[in-house]
């Protein structure tokens, strides 16, 4: 009879075919929705990863910079000083470190207020960033009234560069009634050390501070310099 399937036939009822097609369509729709959902999730994950990376970069920047001046802070200076001491020993090149102290900044703050003192520090910081611009050089704020310059592969000519910085700071003409010259001045201690086993970060900083103290004890507004000598002077870069 035509109303029934013969034994062994491969024909399926129409309702079963429609059901199968419907299920396939639903599966395809589900896969499409799932794929779109995965894309949305992937985009959200990438966005979150980017936000986390930005936050980390900002945190590293904050932790490595002085908030007032935007210069590197003391921690960053000490880290870089260790790196540059090792580099100088590997490459057999001298290393120069200078410490700059603003003369009687405390008296300036007492007379004009700390806001004016902060503006003074910012002006000097901007000047130093402008003057010290070679790749690898570093300008840092060492203390409340002190800055430091780390100058790799720099020889004894750095004393002239440092004294030029002293003159440039004085030329800013920041009024300081308690100063002998009537404007803010600075004192500098500079050392140029050779790449020996004694080239250690702590020694370099201590020696620069000793030269600074000498400049201060001689009345300030001057640069005191010490350079180690080598029997075989290495190839160096100068300002």
CATH class of the largest domain: Alpha Beta
DSSP summary, beta strand count: 5
Counting copies of identical and different chains, the oligomeric state is single chain
Give the CATH architecture of the largest domain.
2-Layer Sandwich
Number of domains: 2
Rg from Cα: 34 Å
Number of helices: 6
Q: What is the CATH topology descriptor of the largest domain?
A: Alpha-Beta Plaits
Task: Tell me the overall shape.
Answer: elongated
Order of helices and strands: HHEHHEEHEHE
> What strand line-up does the widest sheet have?
2-3-1-4-5
Strand content: 5-15%
End-to-end distance: 108 Å
Q: Give the uncertain stretches in residue-range form.
A: 1-7, 57-62, 232-238
Structural class: alpha+beta
Annotated CATH homologous superfamily of the largest domain: Reverse transcriptase/Diguanylate cyclase domain
Mean pLDDT, rounded to whole units? Answer: 84
Q: What summary fits the major beta sheet? A: 5 strands, mixed
